[in-house]
Amino acid sequence: MGLLDGKRALVTGVANRWSIAYAIAKAFHEQGARLAFTYQGERVRDEVEKLAAQCGGAAVIECDVSNDEHLARLPDELRARLGGLDTLVHSIAYANKEDLAGKVYQTSRAGFKLTLDISAFSLVGLVGSLVEILSDGASIMALTYLGATEIVPNYNLMGIAKAALESEVRYLAYDLGERAIRVNAISAGPIKTASSRQVGGFSHILGVVPKVAPLKRNITANDVANTAVYLASDLSSAITADVHFVDSGFHAVGIPPLES
Ligand code: 0WD
Q: Using a 6 Å cutoff on CB, does residue 196 contact ligand 1?
């Protein structure tokens, strides 16, 4: 018996085997869920198809979240492949590299629009497109980071986008609560992936956590995946509009301990 037996899940943001979304998909598969992956475009298609095959032959559907036509045809494709949807995982972010270092006040209008569109509007866009095929009682989750609410050097524009994303989580939770659909964010600690490597000084961020966090270690994508299973399952039936930290407790530290 798996915790997700009978559940149908769409996992976005699988790009390669280091993607947090891939760890989540593997864990969902192990717990009995039937899966679909979306991929951004031809650049990642082959890799995503390979990874889908390792998750019980998950359906693979193209969806660039900046493309309204892709969003519009997604529900029909999912209805055809899975019949409906019980879980949506949003694991998508993008910013130009120059907006992940330097001064926030140097951000261009174009960079701001792009980052907020792909990293924040995409949750609203996906939910808007999928609302009819989501089952009552479904679970939606989005990946976020501490930089939404605290200053993290170089996270800059992505912090601003994550603040918008976390606010969306609360408002969407309110919109969908009458159908018992839950919407939460997982705030993951730093993990080395294609996206995180774009953040200036990322290795410094990785180095601080084991020194400061109560658990004295960095987290893994599997730590995030286990939490995603819980949020997708009926075990979290009264949890919504929440930002759930999977970060070894780092977020709760005010003053770092004296170095010993
Ligand atoms: O330390 C980390 N890695 C953390 C990541 C800590 C806390 C949160 N997160 C978040 C990220 O901000 C993101 O929301 O987790 C989510 C997943 O990020 P990831 O697993 O670290 O990175 P990655 O494997 O790069 O997945 C993000 C993917 C893109 O990957 P690439 O590498 O191809 O840029 O987002 C997808 C794409 O697959 N993506 C899009 N998907 C659809 N349409 C688009 C788009 N326009 N743009 C990017």
A: yes
Q: What percent of the chain has pLDDT over 70?
A: 100
Q: Residues 246, 252, 256, CA angle at the centre, nearest 5°?
A: 115
User: Is 37 near ligand 1, meaning CB less than 6 Å away?
Assistant: no
In angstroms, the CA 102 to CA 111 distance is 14
CA of 194 to the centre of ligand 1 (A): 8
Residue 243, beta-bridge partner list: 185
Strands (E), 91-240: 134-144, 182-188
Closest CA to 107 of 159, 65, 58, 56: 159
Whole-angstrom Cα distance, residue 149 to residue 101? 17
240-254 pLDDT tens trace: 999 999 999 999 999
> Can you give the residue ranges of every domain in the chain?
8-245
Q: Which residues contact 11 (CB under 8 A, 6 or more apart)?
A: 21, 24, 25, 28, 35, 36, 37, 38, 58, 89, 91
C-beta of 44 in contact with ligand 1 (< 6 A): yes
Q: Give the H or E element holding residue 257.
A: none
Superfamily classification of domain 8-245: NAD(P)-binding Rossmann-like Domain (3.40.50.720)
Contacting residues for 235 by C-beta, under 8 A, at least 6 apart: 3
- In single-letter form, the type of residue at position 131 comes to V
Q: What digits encode the pLDDT tens for the residues 51-97?
A: 999 999 999 999 999 999 999 999 999 999 999 999 999 999 999 99
CA of 195 to the centre of ligand 1 (A): 5
Query: Is residue 128 a contact partner of residue 88, using CB atoms and an 8 Å limit?
Result: no
